[in-house]
Design a protein that fits this description.
- This protein is of the alpha+beta class.
- The chain is built from two helices and nine strands; from the N terminus they run αββββββββαβ.
């Protein structure tokens, strides 16, 4: 009878492990997209949305799993932004030059904007659209008035994600206070 009992225990253990795995998969698949509050503070960066495999034939195509509705999508791995309208259509996509500090993947909102300021790297910037901070470094999109990437990001912790001036102008028109910003890998 001992052989039968150990077989039953092994069978029940296998079923239990399988059930836990299934429940974990289902829970991860149903993580809400809204992982942060309007302040931009991430509540669970590890559960943030991740980028679906890139379409190699269309490298500028909007990544799957990047949210729904009107939003700014920023890929930290691809250094690219997509401006997406309320019907899910890409209005514009463009490459960017990130600063030294990247935001964690997640769901944020545009929290403040400035028409013209001096960046943390000392460069005059315009059309600043901010959406979070990381260890007191403010993260946002901006365009250098003189053009180009952020200055020396090795010695200064910068959170400026630099765009060209024409792209910065389009971001400024699109990303008003409260517009979602989805950060993906």
């Amino acid at each position: 009878m001992a052989g039968t009992s150990s077989g039953i225990v092994a069978g029940l253990t296998a079923v239990a492990v399988g059930t836990v795995g299934l429940l974990a998969y289902q829970a991860q698949a149903h993580v809400p997209a809204n992982l942060t509050g309007p302040s931009g503070a991430a509540t669970s960066p590890s559960a943030a949305p991740s980028k679906a495999p890139r379409d190699r034939r269309h490298p500028t195509a909007l990544p799957g799993g990047s949210g729904k509705g009107e939003r700014v999508v920023y890929s930290v791995d691809d250094d690219r932004v997509w401006l997406v309208d309320d019907r899910g259509r890409v209005q514009r996509t463009f490459p960017v030059h990130p600063g030294a500090v990247d935001p964690a993947p997640g769901h944020y909102w545009v929290t403040s904007r400035s028409n013209a300021v001096t960046g943390t790297d000392g460069v005059p910037v315009e059309h600043v659209v901010r959406f979070t901070s990381v260890n007191d470094v403010v993260i946002g999109f901006s365009a250098a008035v003189t053009g180009g990437a952020p200055a020396d990001t090795e010695s200064v912790k910068t959170g400026g994600i630099r765009e060209t001036r024409p792209d910065g102008e389009e971001m400024w028109k699109f990303a008003t206070i409260g517009v979602p910003v989805i950060v993906i890998r």
